[in-house]
Amino acid sequence: MSYELPKAYDFKATEQRLYQWWEKSGFFQPANDPNKPGFDPAKKPFVISIPPANVTGELHLGHAMFVAMEDLMIRYHRMKGEPTLWLPGTDHAGIATQLQVEKALAREGLTRDQLGRAEFERRTWAWKEKYGSIITGQIRRLGASCDWTRERFTLDAGLSRAVREAFVRLYEKGLIYRGTRMINWSPGLRTAVSDLEVEYSQESGFLYYFKYRLADNPEEFIPVATTRPETILGDTAVAVHPEDERYQRFVGRKVLVPILDRPVPVIADDYVDQQFGTGALKITPAHDP
């Protein structure tokens, strides 16, 4: 009996076949499972919960890097004979996922308001099923030795209940409270978003010039350029560079805030860029996020 070897190694078919065999054989499940007979509580397990990828698309090189590093640690401890568990899962990434679903709706000429809540939720869950399976398939293709019988999703009932329980306990301890804060607001999503979800861009602005007259001699003034004239009402000082000969004589004196004529001190600080604007900087801490 003869068998003709292929001219090129078909890694895709071979790796998938081997991985399916590994997974079906239970090679990635931990030994000394507390849910099975013969459990020995004296044996210390080695456990990693995989950083859950967001169900907002597909994996990138950063995911490949951490999967390789964690797989190395998992296989090392497994080969040492330790009970080893690598827990896989995905993250719902609520706001980010909603944004992707709304972009898909926009391509159809629709909005979530037109769909209604029930249909929008159905579309969102459909997105999760599509991209969640793509992500877990990609992790498998990387050869990750996760125990897929324990796969979790961050909106699973048990995990959601644990989050609510943690929130309530923190609230009862006074560690969660309401307060007045500057926040990032998305007018499109109509909700607050975290700093991590904000995408910054540089745009051309305008410099507005104001005269800050000296309190002891209104004939003299320090010219100040600002891109935020609406914050003038909160000014607490004007800063100049200590080596700037134009303004050295004003340090320690007071100037009048435009419109209000409220006196504020002139201070010296080497943080000031002498080449930007007029070289004088108004200080408005109450308007700094």
Account of the protein in words:
This protein is α/β, with parallel strands linked by helices. It has helices at residues 11-24, 61-79, 94-107, 112-115, 117-141, 157-172, and strands spanning 46-49, 53-54, 84-87, 89-91, 152-153, 184-186, 191-193, 208-214, 217-226, 237-240, 254-257, 262-268, 280-283. The protein folds into 2 domains: 11-172, 3-Layer(aba) Sandwich (Rossmann fold), CATH 3.40.50.620; 208-287, Isoleucyl-tRNA Synthetase, domain 2, CATH 3.90.740.10. The chain is built from 6 helices and 13 strands. It has a 4-stranded mixed sheet, with no helix packed on it. Strands 2-4-5 form a 3-stranded parallel sheet. Strand 6 and strand 7 (191-193) form a beta hairpin. The protein starts with 10 loop residues before the first helix and ends in a 6-residue tail after the last strand. The mean pLDDT is 91.
Radius of gyration: 30 Å
Straight-line distance between termini: 77 Å
Into which percentage range does the β-strand content fall? 15-25%
Encode the helix/strand succession as letters. HEEHEEHHHEHEEEEEEEE
The name of the CATH superfamily of the largest domain reads: HUPs
Count of alpha/pi helices? 6
The coarse silhouette is elongated
Helix content: 25-40%
Structural class from helices and strands?
alpha/beta
What oligomeric state do the depicted chains represent?
Answer: single chain
How are the strands ordered across the major sheet?
A: 11-12-10-13
The number of domains is 2
- The overall average pLDDT, rounded, is 91
Overall CATH architecture of the largest domain: 3-Layer(aba) Sandwich
Question: What composes the largest sheet?
Answer: 4 strands, mixed
What's the CATH class label of the largest domain? Alpha Beta
The number of strands is 13
